Amino acid sequence: MISGKGSNLAAILEAGVPVKAVVSNRSGVGGLDIARAAGIQIAAIERKAFAGRTEWEDAMAGFIEAAGCNLVALAGFMRILSGAFIDRFKGRIVNLHPSLLPDFKGLDTHARALAAGKKEHGCTAHWIIPELDEGPIIRQAKVKIRPEDTPQTLQERVLAAEHMMYPQVIKDILAGRVDLPE
């Protein structure tokens, strides 16, 4: 599941991770172009096209299920999912968050890490549960914060760490090398 340019999707594909389908909550994003070029089934399912959140999430879940996906990996998906959607894929839905959870849940993580005077930052792969950015941590990758860092320079280095870590996490989950959440 994506919302934007698809750099994590590209890293996942370059690592040889099998991807059956890609769904975005926004049409016309670069990630869909990446998936299309790789011959992967795609869908853009925008929230505004549906009467309510339940119908929108049902459409996304239906697409994922019809594609036969064993694992749902959020890779830059920028919408909060309901507990009902998450429960539908319980134990099979993972996220990549741009901070060292439990620090800096939500948005603007890089600026918040700098403002807090942290010495390191990074990213976290975690199982998704209904509580935002609270799921069991699978793996983290750390990045040292430099004195000259801006939110943008820190974001670039964290993104590079994401591109290394997340594909391996997904491979490990698919190979049964990661404990499933309870």
What does this structure look like?
With 182 residues, the chain is an alpha/beta fold. The protein is 37% helix and 17% strand. It has helices at residues 7-14, 30-37, 53-66, 83-88, 109-115, 151-174, and strands at residues 21-24, 41-44, 72-73, 93-97, 120-127, 137-144. The strands form two sheets. A four-stranded mixed sheet has the order 3-4-5-6, with helices on one face. A two-stranded parallel ribbon has the order 1-2. Helix 1 (7-14) packs across helix 6 (151-174). It starts with 6 loop residues before the first helix and ends in an 8-residue tail after the last helix. The model has no long low-confidence stretch (mean pLDDT 97).
Measured by DSSP, the beta-strand proportion falls in: 15-25%
Helix/strand/pairing category: alpha/beta
N- and C-termini, Cα separation: 23 Å
Give helix % range. 25-40%
Strand order across the biggest sheet? 3-4-5-6
Gyration radius, rounded: 16 Å
Helix count from the secondary structure assignment: 6
Mean pLDDT: 97
List the helices and strands and how they pair.
Elements: H1 7-14, E1 21-24, H2 30-37, E2 41-44, H3 53-66, E3 72-73, H4 83-88, E4 93-97, H5 109-115, E5 120-127, E6 137-144, H6 151-174
Parallel strand pairs: 1-2, 3-4
Antiparallel strand pairs: 4-5, 5-6
Short description:
This protein has about 180 residues and is α/β, with parallel strands linked by helices. It is about 35% helix and about 15% strand. The strands form two sheets. Strands 3-4-5-6 form a four-stranded mixed beta sheet, covered by helices on one side.
